[in-house]
Design brief:
Elements: H1 2-7, H2 9-21, H3 29-43, H4 47-56, H5 58-66, H6 70-83, H7 90-104, H8 107-208
Helix pairs in contact: 2-3, 3-4, 3-5, 5-6, 6-7, 7-8
Length: 209
């Protein structure tokens, strides 16, 4: 495994330099030359690197665009897009093709590239709208769920408040009834005592007679 890793090292380095070269708009001319020469050197020692270089042309495309060789870049970009129509770099490649066609005055290529570029941008915009619509639906569903939970919590609190109010009313009513009962019992007891006192007085009067 380790031996295979070292055998593939030039191909990995080639891929790294190719990715770096794809950022040519922010590279200095010296950096462009350095990375492109590194790529060329790697194609001499790696079959995978040379096969990619010759078949897909990406390093050449980046180099030609970076050095203003727009006329040379156009057929390379067209060939790459034909061989790899759904390339991950499709959008940037059509942008480069449009730029190269505009710089060279190739109106036909510019028209085709611009039309394709607009289609890709519209498709991405539509995809983004779909994603945004799904995100909005998700947010709406979450908000609706929160509203339902809040309503359930509010209903629970109201039910609990009603239950506590009912208990309080019952307890208050029972207390009032007990107080009234006690008042009646006290009144009856006093009435009975008064009647007993009157009866005792009468009995004593009769005994004295």
């Amino acid at each position: 495994d380790q031996g295979r890793h070292f055998r593939n090292a030039p191909a990995y380095r080639y891929n790294c330099y190719r990715r770096i070269l794809s950022t040519y708009p922010v590279l200095t001319p010296d950096q462009v030359e350095e990375y492109y020469n590194q790529i060329l050197a790697l194609t001499e020692i790696s079959y995978a690197a040379k096969n990619d270089f010759d078949y897909y042309h990406l390093p050449e495309i980046y180099y030609d665009m970076a050095t203003g060789r727009y006329k040379e870049a156009i057929p390379l970009i067209q060939d790459h897009l034909t061989k790899s129509p759904h390339d991950i770099n499709e959008l940037s490649l059509y942008k480069m093709l449009s730029e190269a066609a505009e710089k060279t005055g190739d109106k036909e290529t510019l028209y085709d590239a611009t039309a394709k570029l607009n289609g890709l941008l519209q498709a991405r915009y539509n995809d983004k709208k779909i994603v945004n619509a799904r995100e909005l639906q998700l947010v709406y569903n979450m908000n609706e769920l929160k509203q339902r939970n809040n309503k359930l919590e509010l209903d629970r609190q109201e039910s609990s408040l009603r239950a506590r109010t009912t208990v309080l009313v019952l307890v208050t009513t029972l207390v009032i009834l007990l107080i009234m009962l006690m008042v009646v019992l006290i009144y009856q007891r006093r009435k009975q005592r008064r009647a007993a006192d009157i009866l005792r007085s009468k009995n004593e009067s009769l005994r004295h007679e």
